[in-house]
Design goal:
The chain is mostly helical. 69% of the residues lie in helices and 0% in strands.
Amino acid sequence: MPSLPDNQTRSREPLAPKVPEITALFWVVKILTTGMGEAASDYLAHVNLVLAGTIGLLGFTFALWLQFRVRRYSAPVYWFAVMMVAVFGTMVADGPPIGHIGSTVLYLVVLAAVFYTWHRSEGTLSIHSIVTRRRETYYWLTVLATFALGTAAGDLTADSLRFGYLPSGILFAVIILVPVVAWWRFGLNEVVAFWFAYVVTRPLGASFADWLGKPAKRSGVGLGDGLVALTAFVVIVTLIGYLTVTRGDIQRGGVDDGAIRNIDPQDPALPQQVRPRFRPADID
């Protein structure tokens, strides 16, 4: 079979995996990005709505362009993309004038549609199977949908249901333990447990960020959204620096069985990590 020119092959090949290993530090950074995204979005919107929208959209576009451009997982690039999705996802969730209940239902449907399409196309939702550009696209669509859904759910409990920010944060801290315990003690599917917890990190981090940043008359501490966003950003950058140096979040266990589903073994852009899973006769 004739091979593609090197430039065409490189343009099609995402060197997998492009996402980090799931460790305790992953969840810490993830929750911090949700809080930073909430506070930063609110702060920018208070300064100027047009400025907020411009920064959110351009930052989101540039971050994902950079993430898709790199050929392997990079902690700074990946987490920069997550931070910009956090900011942009907050703006998206606050956009539709359909109330917090309507937004929650809307983004729940959107997330379900993305999951359905992803699974129907690829046969797996595992983050250990992100070995093609298409799967990476599905992954980031899912991440964006989870941020929008989480934002709407957090606003629903804090504002519409009048729980307030701190009680909402405590509520979601309890809810996030559900998939953890269900996976640890009762054998819940790890992919289901991961995405369940991933969705909940958004309202969890945002609720505590709002509690710290919003004034007392809105059930907050009153530190200010700008200070909360800046503090979270500094902590995030410090942790990303640690991950970059230690490389402790790089997936080293190879790809799972779902990685080879629906992949053409004769694709010249087949990632090197996946090639050993096929017979030589399939690839030649």
